[in-house]
Amino acid sequence: MLLYTREAEKVIVELQAKQQYATKLKKVRKALRLLEQAGPRHPGLRSHDYQSVPGPGGVTLWESYVENRTPSAWRIWWIYGPEDGQLTIVTIGPHP
What we know:
Layout: E1 2-4, H1 6-17, H2 22-37, E2 48-49, E3 62-65, E4 74-80, E5 87-94
Parallel strand pairs: 1-5
Antiparallel strand pairs: 2-3, 3-4, 4-5
């Protein structure tokens, strides 16, 4: 089950609001669907811990690919929990 922070929800709403982001929104939705249905170990997501920034409360922040081999490729940053079987999407956006 996926949960979303307000920041992650805001990104999705902004993508939905503008037709120019339709392709990006489709890629984000696909990656989120893979995260939820196949899990973070799906090879296309290339999920790994993101060591540059700690997650909320100091927990491990994870990064999964939305795009690859693209300038400013987009990523999904997420954490495990708060309950077993849940992932919380912290934010979505271009790789820094």
